[in-house]
Design a protein that fits this description.
Layout (H helix, E strand, L loop, with lengths): L5 H9 L6 E6 L2 E6 L2 E7 L2 E5 L5 H6 L4 E5 L5 E7 L9 H23 L31
Pfam families: TfoX_N (PF04993)
InterPro entries: TfoX-like, TfoX_N
Protein name: DNA transformation protein
């Protein structure tokens, strides 16, 4: 396993009030996992927390910034991971509500994935065309007059 750098270790200490959080090396950074779900990223010594349509406006209003990376052909991709407000970055107590929002967003994302696909309505049964049964041929009388 890759050795964690001091910023990752420090961030895990800050997140201890949330409960067990594991850091896993990924794509030049670290994925942060709580209860088996990814709830954060650390890229270039910067913490990003998972957001969704429910929580993103709160992060945005607090001055957070999304994690954006360069994709193929010069295209930029904005992810659902946002920085918490800068004034909470060194205070576990102040960071806790932001980390909880990230965990909640990861739970909502997991629930969306578990929803069964809309069931297709069965096609209406085709009307069966009855094939007429052949009538047995009439027996010819073998009586002779």
């Amino acid at each position: 396993m890759a050795r964690m750098d001091s910023y990752v270790e420090y961030t895990l200490e800050l997140l201890e009030p949330l409960g067990p959080v594991q850091a896993r090396r990924m794509f030049g950074g670290w994925g942060l996992h709580h209860a088996g779900r990814m709830m954060g990223l650390i890229i270039e010594d910067r913490l990003y927390l998972k957001t969704d349509d429910t929580s993103r406006p709160t992060f945005e209003a607090a001055g957070g910034e999304p994690f954006v990376y360069d994709a193929a052909k010069g295209r930029k991709v904005t992810t659902s991971y946002w920085t918490p407000p800068s004034d909470v970055s060194d205070d576990a107590h102040a960071l806790l509500p932001w980390a909880r929002r990230a965990v909640e967003a990861s739970l909502r994302a997991a629930q969306k994935q578990k929803k069964p696909a809309a069931k297709k309505k069965p096609a209406p049964a085709k009307a069966k065309t009855a094939t007429p049964k052949k009538k047995p041929a009439a027996k010819k009388s073998s009586r002779r007059a």
